[in-house]
From TrEMBL:
It holds the Pfam family Peripla_BP_6. It comes from Methylocella tundrae. Transmembrane segments: none annotated. Keywords: Amino-acid transport, Signal, Transport. InterPro entries: BCAA_transport, Leu-bd, Peripla_BP_I, TAT_signal. This is Leucine-binding protein domain-containing protein. The lineage of its organism: Bacteria, Pseudomonadati, Pseudomonadota, Alphaproteobacteria, Hyphomicrobiales. GO terms for biological process: amino acid transport.
């Protein structure tokens, strides 16, 4: 990669040769990415340096642009474009104007890589604040590096339990430098359990959880969540953790069939889920209800299955149907989704709302910082965040765990679309009645 001057007034993005953005079915090639970054004003001078200010605010962003979790990163170029339009490369803090840089790093869907690039941002780039998005495989190692090195960090896209408990957080102490906003796994599970209860089934549930932070956390809390959500008369079958990647689910599928599991919950990235669902068809496993975590949230994750994806159900943490407004741009949820789809010519996903909201939190934090030359001051402003964003209110004082903010979630299903092949509609809003319902729950038809 060509040398880039980190002291110039630029927004910088780390793009490595050979990286392909279309590995997760996103429809972005590396050439398209670079063209988009150029259009977004990235790695070009945005404005003249502020003569009275020496410091450039450096913001690191770690996100899985490549690898099996790349579905989460489809909106990164667009988000940077939105920030450039709003701020033009400068931000006012405590009466002074500062240039800023956004340094984008690819975790490559690897926890080890996420930790490595986070440390690079801290040691080499000397960033003032780091944000990270998308599942504990990225957010947790990034947050751990920030906690160890005393760097303010805000993350999203990871359920609160997987972030806090997955990092061995102490509810009596919390963390000093790191914060996470997203839905809780408990409410996420409750949102699709509410749908399960409204579809006629034999009340037999099969769960397939991977042997990773998400899977082990979900396996740990699912029995209690099920009990709390009044499905004590349902039978739950769990054949045990599976390691990824995996090329054969025959044993698990035979067990699900043998136990009559007509409700199935699987948590797996797109390539792994593809193996499972194709083999389920081959082996005649036809659940009436299917909840595919880490896939069902994304158009690119379900569209390849065509009609076989109709009535997949999933928790919905953001949608064009949500009634929120961005504090950064003033856009409503449908306006933000429409702007992305015009920009990229691909369907937006719920990750858009949170990738946008994380920078709402970042810039709100910086504006409230008393002394931007001190990381402790940035950390204190981040800790005191209470902001209405396009993803809902982010308030780190309310928990449910220290250093976390719990956002809203409803239940949705994929249906035939009009503009796009499939559309995720909201079918249950018991957990957030202010969010409108579009349809009623339905069983999968074969």
């Amino acid at each position: 990669m060509a040398e880039q001057d980190h002291e110039s007034n630029e927004t910088l993005v780390d793009i490595r040769e050979g990286n392909e953005m279309n590995r997760g079915g996103l429809g972005f090639s590396r050439r398209t990415l670079l063209q988009g970054l150029s259009a977004a004003g990235v790695a070009v001078t945005l404005s003249k340096p502020a003569l009275a200010v020496q410091k450039t605010i450096k913001i690191g962003w770690v996100i899985p642009q490549t690898g099996p979790l790349a579905l989460f990163a489809a909106h990164s170029v667009f988000v940077i474009e939105q920030i450039k339009k709003e701020y033009g490369g400068q931000i006012k803090i405590a009466g002074a104007t500062y240039p800023y840089e956004i340094i984008l790093k690819d975790s490559q869907s690897s926890p080890n890589r996420a930790a490595e690039v986070a440390l690079d941002l801290i040691i080499k780039d000397k960033v003032d604040l780091i944000c990270a998005s998308a599942t504990p495989e990225t957010t947790n190692p990034v947050a751990d590096q920030c906690e160890l090195n005393g760097v303010p960090c805000v993350t999203t896209g990871t359920p609160l339990e997987a972030w806090f408990l997955g990092r061995n957080g102490d509810p009596k102490k919390g963390f000093d430098w790191t914060f996470n906003f997203f839905i809780s796994a408990a409410k996420g599970m409750a949102s699709f359990i509410n749908i399960w209860k409204r579809v006629e089934t034999d009340k037999r549930i099969g769960v397939l959880f991977p042997n990773d932070i998400d899977g082990n956390t979900f396996a740990r809390i699912f029995p209690e969540i099920a009990k709390q959500n009044d499905i004590g008369n349902y039978q739950v079958f769990d054949p045990g953790r599976f390691d990824t990647p995996v090329s054969d689910f025959s044993t698990q599928i035979a067990a699900l069939k043998g136990n009559g599991a007509d409700i199935c919950l699987i948590v797996a990235p797109a390539p792994v889920f593809t193996v499972f669902w194709n083999q389920a068809a081959q082996q005649g496993y036809r659940p009436k209800v299917l909840t595919p975590g880490k896939v069902g949230e994304f158009p690119a994750g379900v569209t390849p299955f065509g009609d076989r994806a109709i009535n997949f159900n999933i928790e919905v943490w953001w949608s064009r149907y949500f009634p929120f407004v961005s504090s950064l741009t003033g856009q409503s949820c449908p306006e933000l989704a429409g702007a992305f789809e015009k920009f990229a010519n691909v369907q937006s996903s719920m990750a858009l709302g949170y990738d946008h909201a994380i920078f709402e939190v970042v810039f709100d934090t910086l504006k409230r910082t008393q002394d931007v030359t001190k990381r402790e001051s940035i950390r204190d402003a981040l800790r005191d965040t209470n902001l209405k964003t396009v993803a809902g209110t982010v308030n780190f004082q309310k928990g449910p765990f220290p250093n976390t903010a719990d956002t809203l979630v409803v239940g949705g299903q994929w249906r035939k679309g009009k503009k796009w092949p499939l559309d995720l509609v909201i079918v249950d809003n018991a957990l957030a009645t202010d969010i409108p319902v579009n349809s009623e729950p339905q069983a999968i038809a074969y």
